[in-house]
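Rotation project, supervised by the postdoc (A.L.). Task for the rotation student: set up a whole-complex structure prediction and record inputs and outputs verbatim in this book. Inputs entered:
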Amino acid sequence: MADTMNVSYDTLIPNNVGLSSDRRVLKALEKWHPGYINWWNDLIPENFQKSLVYLRTAVSVDPQGWAKFDYVKMPEYRWGVLLAPQVENRIIPCGEHYGEPAWQEVPGEYRALLRRLIVIQGDTEPASVEQQRFLGKTAPSLYDMRNLFQVNVEEGRHLWAMVYLLHKYFGADGREEADDLLRRQSGSEEAPRMLGAFNEETPDWLSFFMFTYFTDRDGKMQLESLAQSGFDPLSRTCRFMLTEEAHHMFVGETGVGRTIQKTCEMMNEAGIVDPYDIDKIRALGVIDLPTIQKKLNLHYTLSLDLFGSEVSTNAANSFNWGLKGRYRENKLEDDHRLKDATYPVAEFDGKQITVRDVNAISAINMRLRDDYTEDARGGVRRWNQIIRKHNIDFELALPHEAFHRHIGTFSGAPVSPEGLVISREEWDSRRDEWLPSKADGDYIQSLMKPVTEPGKFASWIAAPKVGIDNKPGDFEYVKLHMA
Amino acid sequence: MTKPLKQHLIDPEICIRCYTCEMTCPIEAITHDDENVVVDFEKCNFCMDCIPVCPTGSIDEWRVVTKPYSLEEQFSWEELPAQEDIPAGGGESGSDTSIEALDDEMAKLLAEAHAGAGGRSRAPATASKPSVNLYTISKPAKARVAGNFRLTAEGSDSDVRHIILDFGNQSMPVLEGQSIGIIAPGTDASGKPHLPRLYSVSSPRDGERPNYNNLSLTVKREDKGVCSNYVCDLKIGDEVDVTGPFGSTFLLPDDPQARLLMICTGTGSAPFRAFTMRRQRTVGTHGGSMTLFFGARSPDSLPYFGPLNKVPNRVLSKHLVFSRIPGAPKEYVQDRLKVEEEEIAELLGDENTHVYICGLRGMEEGVEKALTNIAESTGVEWISLRDAMREQGRYHVETY
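Outputs recorded:
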């Protein structure tokens, strides 16, 4: 019997799914492997490929084994296939099959939708690595560079996780989908990534932190709800991915927090009280708080779009068929079928925003988006604590759900961040008050100077309070090749 | 006064509320409100499952307290309270709130063992963070003996054993340089159970056999020694009560380029075997230099004489020194240090060098004298160099 806790290294692909005794899938994955390595090698600049990076690698999926830290060259990172241990007697946690034993094989009648859910999730993983490919060159410290690469290799591993499911459970069309995951490219004209936010550039490090805070948090919510799938292999895959995803949340929250920290420190030091005294603040080499709010507005709203339409038949089917649950479905105390339940959904009729109760099953996307907003609010509260501690009169806030939207009922609606419906003209004329302007982008870009001396940080960002793996402040997280 | 307690806490300034710890905790000792994620003192049993899954390190916080912080107190925190000074009983100046070990007896033993460094020991800057005190006298780990080999020649009057212990599915994360305690069965003359005896682990962190949950010890049979005789007589399959791990300063730097000067006698070689194997398994010949001075009476009483000779010199520069070779003058490690004066002086002058001394207490004086001479021959005052190195976590002594 395969040892499902520890990772086996008896094939090229580390795994805890007994690959060595599953010749068909092993062969398929080995065929896919070179394409993946090529994709990686084409993506990451060569001097980083040859550098030693202090990364964590999972050697087993139990708590003791999943975070082993060591120096590795990224192309030698042990990407592999890791599933959380099977929970005995697990049931389908929601929908019309609620209470039946969880599926260990693909339920034939739901095959197409299940495959689509996996492909969409899989498509986001390599996309973000593509979006972030140039950031290594402007890293504000070796610490941040290491965090970027950790996020990148783990997104790579998450791609592996989805590709394994496609190869193992979806035969020839699964193999084709797996190949397509490497064929599509973020921002490409002919073969773009499937979701809008994943075709946007990540031009600077504040964008990267906002992306990992807001957009990866969408990823976390999607993984949370796929971890509640009645298709057990998907659930087990996503449960293990969530432990890694937490690191991405960490990079985002602390990255933005450290940016705010440095701005506040410098304002205090220079005796600047007015947070809107932007020229003076920028002269200090830090990013003013109003610009940080604009970046927040942009990334938060792009991420809301990722949840899809508020009312959705696809989402209803996913839930009803037991393929995708709600956030923490297993902790919710209701009938898990939602046949007669309702959920309040906001709507825009061209003039005003109203709220009406709709069938809860159709509003699954809306509900997940609300859970997301609640989750995202926590970090904003903690960012505000930093500002308050420095006695600066400024508060960051999440904009209204109707502001700057491209998907769903609010798509294109002229709504201010406070949620007021205004005229198209007013919205357009005030756009640069609310969203980063070209000039804001240029200013942030001007700060993106790489810092590669251990323990040193760029002007606009504070040092972290704790090192990775408890390492001291001047630890050399990346031993740069030819540095 | 009440005995100080160890409490597990989470730093609310570092925590990002991902709740991964809460999902991981097998006994639901972790909970959260709208503000903070907290650990229930009444429930937490120090199983440590939550430690590696935390992405931030905020989970790895410990305080020695006289009265544990309640859940309500923890929910209200915006930052973690500092460690309070705890006045010690018995007229001492203050309790040691560092955590080489939490068992009083073990902490005392380690403090004595490290005293030769001349001040408070510190871990190397790049050392991994050690786990301590996962298992205690009242809640020991149960290990199975997987091997017991004599390391010294049959004819030698010194019986040193290589003992392999397997921990099955219990977690026993030990770093090179840490010790574990072994509890001999039975009671002492006054009818009390035996206290654990500390043994330095001689295998690297990934196990005597890589990725097996086992470790090795290097144990010398002492005349009338209760625990050493118990350990040396263990048979394969025997079950052993183990406490620990202990020690948070005598550790290997993770920086593969750090240079190591290791000086030992007898079973003091145990941690250095672990250091060397760790290096061999990770960087091979590409690490910083490693130099070993190893004293014994004769080759047939020197533990690991055979395997040691197989380690290539470009990995480990070896100086094996013998004090009882018929027809040869007695030579001790300090004598050889003086012979290799130039090499030692160069090492001491390099800020990348870490010095480790391990063995019988009797070796301390001679080694210290030799190092004093060598340092001062280059115009450096030894005590200030030593103290500076110790403060930087680069000078370590463990003698018994």
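Student's summary: The domain at 259-399 of chain B is CATH 3.40.50.80 (Rossmann fold).
Supervisor addendum: Residues 88-97 of chain B have pLDDT under 50 and may be disordered.
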